[in-house]
Amino acid sequence: MCRLFGMHAGHVPVTATFWLLTAPDSLAQQSRREADGFGIGAYDAEGRPVIEKAPIAAYEDKAFAAEARDLASITFIAHVRYASTGGNLKVNTHPFEQDNRLLAHNGVVQDLDRLDARLRQLGVMDLVKGETDSERVFALITAEIRSNGGDVEAAIASALGWVAENLRLFAVNILLANATDIWAVRYPDTHPLYVLELSGQDMRGGMQTHRISVRSEELAAGQRPAVLFATEKMDDNPGWRLMDSGEVLHVDSSLAVHSSRPLPAAPRYPLTLEDLDERAAASQKPLHAGAAGPTA
C-alpha cells in the first residue's frame, strides 16, 4: 500500500530532511512490491508549491529516490507510490497540485468513467493530466472548493460523499495541504492513518517508518510543536492516534486540530482485495507488522 506522511509546523517554516525508500524491499520477499514512485511537496516563502517527484522504473531511479532531500516549509506532504492505476510516469506520481493545493492519496476508487463524466459536468476535467483515480478525486474536491467559495472541509465532505454514494470504493485516505493548513481523511477503515500532536521535546532522534524518514533540526531542538500524519506510527511516542473511519481532520496555522465525521458510515459499493485486479490488489496489501523506531 502507498505510504503517506504529512507535517504542519505552525506559523514559521522549519527545515526538514526527508529520506524515502529507507528500507528497500528484500528480493527474498517475493510477496512485497517495489515502489513505483515517490514525491515530496512543500511551500516556499511566498506560499508557492514546491514539488519534487519521480516514478521509479529502474535501479537508478531507486537510488535517486533514496537520496536525502532538504526542504523548508510550514506544511509538507510526502508519498511513496504503489501503483493501482496508471503507468510509472511522473504525471501519475503524487503529490498532485491543483489551484495551489497539494494532495496525496492511498487507496482505490473504481468506475472512473462515471467519475470522468461527473468531472466533465462540473467543468474540471482539464485538471486531470494523468491516469490515476487519485488525481480525479482531487479534481472533484477542487470543483467543490471552487463552487462553495473556498471551504476545503465542506468540499471534501461533498466530494467524498458523492464518491461513497456512487462509485465502487476500496479506500480514500487523503492528505491535502495548502501553504497554511493541512486536511487529512481516513475512509473507510481499510487502511490506517495516524495523527500525532507533537510537543517540543518529542522529535529529538528523528522519525522513520519502513518507507519514509524525516528529521528537523528546529523540532529536534525542542522549541517547536508540530502535527504529523503517517500511514504508520513513526516512533514509540504514545501520542500517536489512529484516525476514525470517516474522520476528517483540519490543522490550521495555529496548529489547532479540528475533527469532524461528515462521511457515510460505509460506502454504498465497498470493495475488498478479492474484488481488485492483480495489480491493484498487490498495491493495497496491508502493512507489515510493527513500525520502525527513531532514526539514529
Automatic annotation (TrEMBL):
Coiled coil: none annotated. Transmembrane segments: none annotated. CDD domains: YafJ. SUPFAM superfamilies: N-terminal nucleophile aminohydrolases (Ntn hydrolases) (SSF56235). InterPro entries: EgtC-like, GATase_2_dom, Ntn_hydrolases_N. It comes from the Bacteria. Pfam families: GATase_4 (PF13230). Residues 2-254 form the Glutamine amidotransferase type-2 domain. The keyword Cell division does not apply. Keywords: Glutamine amidotransferase. PANTHER family: GLUTAMINE AMIDOTRANSFERASE, GLUTAMINE AMIDOTRANSFERASE YAFJ-RELATED. This is Class II glutamine amidotransferase. It comes from Arthrobacter jiangjiafuii.
